[in-house]
Every structure is written in structure tokens, then in C-alpha cells.
Amino acid sequence: VQLVESGGGLVQPGGSLRLSCAASGFTFSSYVMRWYRQAPGKERELVARIGSAGGSTNYADSVKGRFTISRDNAKNTVYLQMNILEPEDTAVYYCNAWRAGSPYSEDYWGQGTPVTVSS
């Protein structure tokens, strides 16, 4: 199982970035996909979530209206389009795949991609 994030980097406030997460080794279309982030000295927080078929999305209040999560099940890839970036968005962004199971759910993580918003 692999989740490989890409697209992070340095961007000025007000700018945009598009993160990608390429999945392999599991049935991507059966999993809920999530983007988390962790800023220095802070706990990891959920940023956005998308259902397995792509029809259901949820966002943290802090990114609503600025970030958009999407997925392409044919390409086994989930995306996070980030617009109007703010310095507070600086963090390492992680891709997560989750599926309910019995007795345990299945939960996979990528290695993270850093995003720095600074002038």
C-alpha cells in the first residue's frame, strides 16, 4: 500500500497550490479519502474529506470556501486545491485512506508534503 503526496512548496499569501495524492496497492474507490495537516507545535487536524464515490465532501471551517477536495477513481488519485492561502495554512499536509472494517477499520497514510505560505 502506498500513498504518495506531491504539489507542496512555498507560496505567497493569497496564492494557490494543488496537492495530489497517488494511491496504489488497495482498492482506491472503496475508501474515504481525507487530507490532514499538522503545523509545527500543533496537533494534526482534518482539513477535508471526500466519500468513496466523490459525491460527499466535508471541510474544516478554517478552509471552507478556499479549499476543494476532489478525486479521480480512474487514476487512483485525490486532490486538494488550495486557494487564497494564508500563513496559517503552513503545515505538512498528509493524505489518508480509510475504510470501515470488522473488527478493525483500514487506515493508510502518506508521508506528507510541506506547504509554506510566506512572503
Describe this structure in words.
0% of the residues lie in helices and 52% in strands. The protein has 119 residues and is mainly β. The strands form 2 sheets. Strands 2, 4, 5, 6, 9, 10 and 11 form a 7-stranded mixed sheet that branches. The chain has a 4-stranded antiparallel sheet with strand order 1-3-8-7, with no helix packed on it. It is globular, with a radius of gyration of 14 Å.
Short précis:
This protein has 119 residues and is mainly beta. The chain has no helices and eleven strands.
Task: Supply the helix-strand structural class.
Answer: mainly beta
Q: How can the largest sheet be summarized?
A: 7 strands, mixed
Low-confidence blocks of residues: none
Average pLDDT level: 96
List keywords for this structure.
globular; mainly beta; 4-stranded antiparallel beta sheet; 119 residues; 7-stranded mixed beta sheet
SSE layout and pairing:
Blueprint: E1 2-6, E2 9-11, E3 17-24, E4 32-38, E5 45-50, E6 57-59, E7 67-72, E8 77-82, E9 91-99, E10 106-109, E11 113-117
Parallel strand pairs: 2-11
Antiparallel strand pairs: 1-3, 3-8, 4-5, 4-9, 5-6, 7-8, 9-10, 9-11
